[in-house]
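The instructor's notes for this session suggest beginning with a concrete chain rather than abstract definitions. Hand out the sequence below and ask the class to guess, before any prediction is shown, which regions might be ordered.
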Amino acid sequence: MATSQKVLTVNIVTPDGLVYDHHATMLVACAVDGDLGIMANHEPIIAPLKIGEVRVKRTDNPDHEDAVAVNGGFLEVNDNVASIVADSAERARDIDLKRAETARERAEKKIKVAEAQHDIDEVQRAQVALNRAINRINVSKHRRF
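After discussion, reveal the predicted structure:
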């Protein structure tokens, strides 16, 4: 695809609906195999995402970057549109930090109890909850450039 367009449309959708939709010069997402940087005119790609931060450098303000906590899903890039279909996602400005910290504490306690009971399945579930809470905490503290 050889075009001169320098704008990438980024949208993030969850089962609850559209979470994010903006034009960007660059997108960085946490794929299972490592971070991906996507700019306009990128070759088509589909990649599974892990729990992590998605950063979007917006076109309307070159010094502005949005952060979104994404909890798994898939990224598809095609024709200057980057679509993320996520299990759940939350913009940094919408994250309730106190709620995220409470979720982290709850998950840490569940891990300790499950380890004491040698319940491997419960340890894994609690670890996922802990990773999601930590991701939300980190993204909520993200400072814009």
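Then share the key points. DSSP finds two helices and seven strands in the chain. The mean pLDDT is 91.
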